Amino acid sequence: MRYIARVKVSLKPGHSDPEGETTREALLELNYPVDSVRVGKLYEILLEASSIDDAQMKVEEICKRLLANPVKDDYKYEIKEASNE
User: Fold this and answer.
1) d(Cα 74, Cα 8) in Å, to the nearest integer?
2) Which residues contact 66 (CB under 8 A, 6 or more apart)?
3) Each residue's pLDDT expressed in tens, for the chain with a length of 85 residues
4) CA–CA dist 51, 79 (Å, integer)
5) Looking at beta carbons, which pairs linking 72-77 to residues 24 or more positions away fall under 8 Å?
């Protein structure tokens, strides 16, 4: 069965976000009254798995082994069956 996982990786609170700070400064220069900007990454992964539980185990492993650094990153994901398109 095919599943789509959407994984959001973001910095843990307290870690500096230079890209977010640069973006905030640019928005302020463009006269947008923003207080802060945090940058994250969104991954969309299409994968084969025997069940939703198997897909969840695979995505968890992918996050821990490659997508997120446990020292500085948090991650969340959602998984659903892929449509037959």
Assistant:
1) 8
2) none
3) 999 999 999 999 999 999 999 999 999 999 999 999 999 999 999 999 999 999 999 999 999 999 999 999 999 999 999 986 5
4) 11
5) 72/11, 72/12, 72/15, 73/9, 73/10, 73/11, 73/12, 74/9, 74/10, 74/11, 74/12, 75/7, 75/8, 75/9, 75/10, 76/7, 76/8, 77/5, 77/6, 77/7, 77/8
Contact 75, 11 (CB under 8 A): no
DSSP string, 24-38: HHHHHHTT---S---
pTM greater than the 0.85 cutoff: yes
All domains of the chain, ordered by start, with CATH?
2-14+40-81 (3.30.1280.10)
